[in-house]
Amino acid sequence: MLADEILKLLEQRKGEYVSGEDIADGLGVSRNAVWKAVAALKEQGLEISSVRNRGYRLTGDRLTEAGIRKYMANDVYKFKIYNTVTSTNDVARELAAQGEPEGTVVIARAQTAGRGRMGRNFFSPDGCGAYFSIIVRPKRLERLLTVIAAVAVADGIETAGGLDASIKWVNDVYVGGKKCCGILTEAVTDMESGGIDHAVVGIGIDVRTPEGGFGKLKNIAAAALDGVQDALNKTVAKVLDKFYELYVLGEKDEIVSAYKERSFLIGKDVAVAKGGDELPARVVDIDDDCRLVVRYRSGDIERLSAGEVKIIL
Q: Are 11 and 34 in a shared domain?
């Protein structure tokens, strides 16, 4: 589509004015066709300024395929971008069930029913976060998908220009002592083989602080890249690049080591949720299967493969 070609050009020269004549000549279309295509892009919510004798300039921070690909090292993903969905995991699960290939990424600029583990809501306002889900059909490392995503997010945030990022077992990423990302992996089992037919790795990152702040979440939530130019596109690109590097090219020992290095729970006192109770324990390690190793006050050691822990201050 002409609008997509124009958007790609404007993304490549973001912040600069590009004359309508240059666009028309470069794409072999009329000036009027360019004007109509730019108008269509504006209707999609893109911020494009128009100045006589100067041309068109793309501004703002809006998630687009061209904007994401501009920052990517790997051209291996297929994108499906929506303005608003219930949750990207919902859409991705439906697409995966219909045979959508591995490497498809569902991205939304806003979610009306974003969610995390244990059914918790994930606040997903337009223009503030990177909300996306990756469809995978794993033949290896299937039990490390959430671990891979957590490392990819932490690395992606840092590469995109944000704060140092760390991981709270098992699937939360933190900056400055506050949560900026949650990850929800949902898998479907192949009944014949007993293995995973496909999985959806859902990632929600608070990239920018919402207007009015985080409200009642202000003491526990933070934005990862406030003040970074084009942070939304850049963050998605860098996270996806790292995910590909680990999922396709990485080895288990390398992935576990990277995860463990970023964990901030080792040595901390925590409360382990157990059947409605919270049992005090100390985190002593993360093992080779990324299980959390805790020692209770009784001296008993347990390796947790799932569950919930809270830091005791």
A: yes
As for how many domains the chain has, the answer is 3
Query: Could you read off the pLDDT of 241-280 as tens digits, one per residue?
Result: 999 999 999 999 999 999 999 999 999 999 999 888 899 9
Q: Per the confidence metrics, is the pTM higher than 0.85?
A: yes
Query: What pLDDT is attached to residue 49?
Result: 87
Query: In this structure, are 98 and 218 located in the same domain?
Result: yes
Whether the pLDDT of residue 235 is over 70: the answer is yes
Same domain, yes or no, for 212 and 80? yes
Q: Whole-angstrom Cα distance, residue 217 to residue 29?
A: 50
When pLDDT is cut at 50, 70 and 90, the band that residue 193 belongs to is low
The token pair at 96 is 């995966």
